[in-house]
């Protein structure tokens, strides 16, 4: 990275250089400075800090004295900066500047991408309080470092700030012990008062995304969590926006065009929460209960049902709190920012892709001409930031909903996805335990449950025939049977998505 040098200089800047403003961040001053090199030339002021100055201009820069010298200032280019208000945009960077955030679910996949984008785009953001489930402050700080600061996702920020990276991150990210499932989101009373008086934007990204999770577990975080957080939001004296990360599939099994509107409350959420937390000894049946309740009211699984109830609770409780809800479809790896292809954990599509690549799944239950609605994580974050800028300074509180999806603008048809997967594994096969490439056939797509089930058993029979005596040991036979049942269960869980005909 190129390092420039600022030295005392007496020429005033030209207006057309595009420099917007200087913000001094310390009391130590020098007479004038000038900037030249990769950045636009000619910037000066009568009194400029020699220790730490943020220049908001055609490029954002951070200035700091190298090696303690008072007559020079090292300059590092951060990110392209454009005043969006002046260039016909909605002023995202301008909105982020100086704002204080309170983010839940920040150690999760999307939460991390959001934090990285904020810090890289607006290094002069205020603070970001990060709610972390931990036993104490020390454990929360450790999770912040391990799950966020030291992860690969932040390598661009690390390159930008160099040896000052850790100090920059720790000055912006404040770990806070808490839990959205608890009253006052589990905050210590001192932190509760501090954040309530300080925060501008609350982002709820905390969620349990398991489709067939226990009903009590899913309701606790996906429904009760937003309720607890909204209760806290109503105590925040300067709050400009409550932003909820939801899912496009809260729309349930509706078909056709689906509008960006809140739900008409057609069920008693309080009764559902009471049912989930009753001490009725149901134990493992909690999974079945969640699926039963979801399907009774028109949702396909426990995850989207409890997320939908979370939206209902927010709408019912919000009062004068401005709300924006982001409903993304299937979130997958980053498209561009901070770099292409970043992924963490197994997302919705990944188990199918991995099973296929390992030769364990040669077909799947889908509508071959159906569309899988996938959207990259960084595009979801971009939409989230745009919603913040648009509604975080609205004159009147309102509730606004945005679907972030691809099925209309850039549809990915299942048979095309199957072709792409085969091309990928044909050129870059997985390896078995012996290091031998695993060659996979073209994936077969079935629109009938019976046909798919028959295919799974026929595939298992072929595996049996491939053994020396054409028979499987009882242990191996049991493993094959279990695998078939797992794949059938996977197909059953995914069926509402692989045959979905809604457009957003």
UniProtKB/TrEMBL annotation:
* Biological role: Catalyzes the reduction of fatty acyl-CoA to fatty alcohols.
Matches recorded under InterPro entries: FAR, FAR_NAD-bd, NAD(P)-bd_dom_sf
EC category: oxidoreductase
Starting at the broadest rank, the lineage of the source organism is: Eukaryota, Viridiplantae, Streptophyta, Embryophyta, Tracheophyta
Q: One GO BP annotation here?
A: long-chain fatty-acyl-CoA metabolic process
Q: Which SUPFAM superfamilies match?
A: NAD(P)-binding Rossmann-fold domains
Enzyme Commission identifier(s): 1.2.1.84
The record's keywords, sorted A to Z, are: Lipid biosynthesis, Lipid metabolism, NADP, Oxidoreductase
Q: Which Pfam families match?
A: NAD_binding_4 (PF07993)
The protein's name in its UniProt record: Fatty acyl-CoA reductase
Q: Which Gene3D superfamilies match?
A: NAD(P)-binding Rossmann-like Domain
Reactions catalysed according to its record: a long-chain fatty acyl-CoA + 2 NADPH + 2 H(+) = a long-chain primary fatty alcohol + 2 NADP(+) + CoA
Question: What residue stretches are annotated with the Thioester reductase (TE) domain?
Answer: 103-384
The similarity comment for this entry is:
Belongs to the fatty acyl-CoA reductase family.
Molecular function (Gene Ontology), one example: alcohol-forming very long-chain fatty acyl-CoA reductase activity
């Amino acid at each position: 990275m190129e390092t420039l040098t600022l030295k005392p200089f007496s020429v005033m800047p030209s207006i057309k250089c595009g420099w917007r403003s200087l913000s001094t961040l310390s009391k130590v001053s020098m007479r004038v400075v000038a900037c030249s090199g990769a950045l636009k030339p000619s910037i000066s002021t009568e009194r400029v800090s020699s220790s730490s100055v943020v220049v908001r201009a055609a490029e954002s820069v951070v200035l700091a004295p190298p090696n303690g010298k008072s007559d020079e200032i090292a300059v590092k280019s951060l990110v392209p900066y454009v005043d969006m208000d002046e260039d016909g945009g909605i002023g995202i960077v301008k909105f982020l500047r100086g704002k204080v955030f309170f983010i839940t679910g920040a150690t999760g996949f999307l939460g991390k991408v959001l934090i990285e984008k904020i810090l890289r785009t607006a290094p002069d953001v205020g603070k970001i309080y990060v709610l972390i489930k931990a036993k104490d402050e020390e454990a929360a700080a450790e999770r912040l470092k391990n799950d966020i600061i030291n992860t690969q996702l932040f390598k661009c920020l690390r390159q930008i700030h160099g040896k000052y990276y850790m100090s920059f991150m720790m000055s912006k990210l404040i770990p806070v012990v808490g839990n959205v499932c608890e009253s006052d989101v589990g905050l210590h009373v001192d932190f509760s008062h501090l954040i309530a008086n300080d925060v501008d934007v609350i982002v709820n990204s905390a969620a349990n995304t398991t489709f067939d999770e226990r009903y009590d577990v899913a309701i606790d975080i996906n429904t009760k969590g937003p309720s607890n957080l909204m209760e806290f939001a109503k105590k925040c004296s300067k709050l400009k926006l409550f932003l909820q990360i939801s899912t496009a599939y809260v729309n349930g099994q509706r078909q056709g065009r689906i509008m960006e509107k809140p739900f008409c409350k057609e069920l008693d959420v309080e009764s559902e929460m009471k049912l989930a937390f009753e001490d009725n000894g149901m134990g493992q049946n909690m999974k079945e209960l969640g699926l039963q309740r979801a399907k009774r009211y028109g949702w396909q699984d426990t995850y989207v049902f409890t997320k939908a109830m979370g939206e209902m609770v927010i709408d019912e409780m919000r009062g004068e709190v401005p709300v924006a809800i982001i409903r993304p479809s299937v979130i997958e790896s980053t498209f561009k920012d901070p770099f292409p292809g970043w992924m963490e954990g197994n997302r919705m599509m990944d188990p199918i892709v991995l099973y296929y690549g390992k030769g364990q799944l040669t077909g799947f239950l889908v509508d071959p001409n159906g569309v899988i609605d996938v959207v990259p994580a960084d595009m979801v974050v971009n939409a989230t930031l745009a919603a913040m800028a648009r509604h975080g300074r609205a004159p009147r509180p309102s509730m606004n909903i945005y679907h972030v999806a691809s099925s209309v603008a850039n549809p990915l048809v299942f048979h095309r996805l199957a072709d792409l997967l085969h091309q990928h594994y044909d050129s870059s096969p997985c390896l078995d335990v012996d290091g031998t490439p695993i060659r996979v056939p073209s994936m077969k797509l079935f629109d009938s449950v019976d046909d798919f089930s028959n295919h799974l058993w026929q595939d298992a029979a072929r595996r049996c025939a491939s053994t020396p005596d054409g028979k499987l040991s009882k242990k191996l036979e049991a493993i094959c049977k279990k695998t078939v049942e797992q794949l059938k269960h996977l197909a059953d869980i995914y069926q509402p998505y692989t045959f979905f005909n809604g457009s957003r």
